[in-house]
Amino acid sequence: MRAADAMLRALGGDQIALVLPLPAPATDPGSQLGLSDPGMQQVFISPVIVRNLPAPSTGPRLRLEFLLSASAVANAVDAQGAGSPETLFDSALGIQYQADLFHIESMTTDYFAGTAYLYHVIAVE
After folding, report:
1. Prior bond to 38 cis, omega within 30?
2. Is 109 in contact with 4 (CB distance < 8 Å)?
3. Contact in structure between 51 and 63 (CB atoms under 8 Å)
4. Are 116 and 88 in contact (CB under 8 A)?
5. Which DSSP string do the residues of 4-59 spell out, in sequence order?
6. Which residue has the higher pLDDT, 73 or 5?
7. Around 122, how many Cα atoms within 13 Å sit in the side-chain half-sphere?
8. Cα–Cα distance between 46 and 6 in angstroms, integer?
9. Tens digits of per-residue pLDDT, 34-65?
10. pTM of this structure
């Protein structure tokens, strides 16, 4: 994991914000009915490398691949109390990169010796 972190930093590691919904209080009947917005929070993840992917002729105009450090994702999972990185990304509303919000399309994990060291997240605008 340290080697992957060093590689991501050496290649110009960037920062993204994972946009997550705030937990709604269980006692608020308006939130249970969907009448009030509980809000959202940003969880910053760094180092990240962002790569442009070719966009299909029909569909989203911008596709990006985010290469995320496994140690940074593990810190975010612990901070949010999520059970796993998959749970964290499934609950995310999107990824904010620069001034744009991207919808998460897919996520894959790279392993070495049974340990995750890099996450590939593909997102569309």
Report:
1. no
2. no
3. no
4. no
5. HHHHHHHTT-EEEEEEEEPPPPTT-HHHHTT-S---EEEEEEEEEEEEEEPPPSSS
6. 73
7. 11
8. 11
9. 666 778 899 999 999 999 998 777 777 889 99
10. 0.83
